[in-house]
Amino acid sequence: DFLFFWGAVFLVTTTLVAFLKKENEELIPAKEETKGITDTYRLLFSIIKMPAVLTFCLLILTSKIGFSAADAVTGLKLVEEGVPKEHLALLAVPMVPLQIILPLIISKYTAGPQPLNTFYKAMPYRLLLGLEFAFLVWWAPKVKHEGGFPVYYYAVVVLSYALHQITLYSMYVAIMAFNAKVSDPLIGGTYMTLLNTVSNLGGNWPSTVALWLVDPLTVKECAGAQGHTCATAAATEV
């Protein structure tokens, strides 16, 4: 109901803006980026053909493959192991002030001539935290008892998530700073949008693939049903 309500509000307001809001034809800026949609896509195509941009896009599209499983699947696996969803949601609350403060701190290190250095330095730590998340999932059934999970387990989860947020925001702020730095000021909006879109896509497609691979890569055993591997949904149902 919540999502439906705000989805409806979003559609209505953006539709009203599209039909009721008109461009100011009298005050055309001296250095207008583009004159229309066709020009914009021509400009984007000319940007992406540049060797440096093409190489950068290829790197940014593949740089987050190593984090995809940890980022997308950890929460789901913790719930599968018995950690209540409402507890995981509560653990996200302490992350909010951290998420507000981190960009302010990290921006000091990405304001220099080489903002991607922060990106590179954070990457190995984020990869190691992927192993830490795997350990948390493995550890969950070991410490679970009738009353749920002990406080120290939640403390380790919160600490792990906090460290993960530091590495995540270090990479995020660094890539945004780099995109802003290399974008041509005359076509800054178009240039920035292209690089940020590629950056977002580089984080989304590996997570989608990771979620899709969960079932095929999960080893399952059937109790009391010899000859069944439970490898498929149909076998599990049987």
Using only C-alpha atoms, the radius of gyration works out to 23 Å
Number of DSSP E strands: 0
Proportion of helical residues = over 70%
Mean pLDDT: 87
Instruction: Tell the overall outline.
Output: globular
Please, what is the oligomeric state?
single chain
| SSE string, helices as H and strands as E | HHHHHHHHHH
Low-confidence stretches: none
Major beta sheet, specifics? none
Terminal CA distance reads: 35 Å
Number of discrete helical segments: 10
| Amount of beta strand | under 5%
Structural class: mainly alpha
Characterization of the model:
With 238 residues, this protein is mainly alpha-helical. The chain has a domain at 46-210. The chain is 73% helix and 0% strand. The chain contains ten helices and no strands. Helix 3 (51-62) runs parallel beside helix 9 (188-217), helix 4 (68-80) crosses helix 9 and helix 8 (151-182) packs antiparallel against helix 9 (188-217). The protein starts with a helix and ends with a helix.
Brief summary:
This protein has 238 residues and is an all-alpha fold. Helices cover 73% and strands 0% of the residues.
Q: Which key features would you list for this structure?
A:
acetyl-CoA transmembrane transporter activity, MFS_trans_sf, transmembrane helix, single chain, about 240 residues, AmpG_permease/AT-1, mainly alpha, transmembrane
